[in-house]
Amino acid sequence: MKPSMLRCALIAAVLLPTAAWADNEPPEARHLLSRLLSAVAEEDYQQFSALGTEDFQAGIPEAEFDRVTDAMTERVEQGYEADYLTHLNQQGYRVEIWKISFADGGDDTLARLVVFEGKAAGFLLQ
Hints:
The chain is α+β, with helices and mostly antiparallel strands. The protein contains 5 helices and 4 strands; from the N terminus they run αααααββββ. The protein has helices at 3-21, 27-41, 45-50, 54-59, 62-78, and strands at 80-90, 93-102, 109-116, 119-125. A 4-stranded antiparallel sheet has the order 1-2-3-4. A hairpin with a 2-residue loop joins strand 1 (80-90) and strand 2 (93-102). The longest helix is centred in the N-terminal third of the chain and has 19 residues, at 3-21.
């Protein structure tokens, strides 16, 4: 290998891991995600609502929460792994994105969580 190619390879080896760390997941968002999913598993609307802002609480009626728990409770209870993917800057908020893989081996879910002052301002499972 030519010295210039070797130097480029070494620079890439040093810089690439740094780039991967540039989008570290915020621990408070991970904790909030875990608590929201626990509330889904426990089918506890009050706990779920309490984790959100006033707008979040008003925007997710209990009937909608029940539809989500009907589809997700058993899967979450069986176990899951949340892999942090990235974040988006949208409308002045930071939106945290995770891939949720379930122990049942079924389809993965994309989780989008908006955190505002330590509370959920938005939460979407796709």
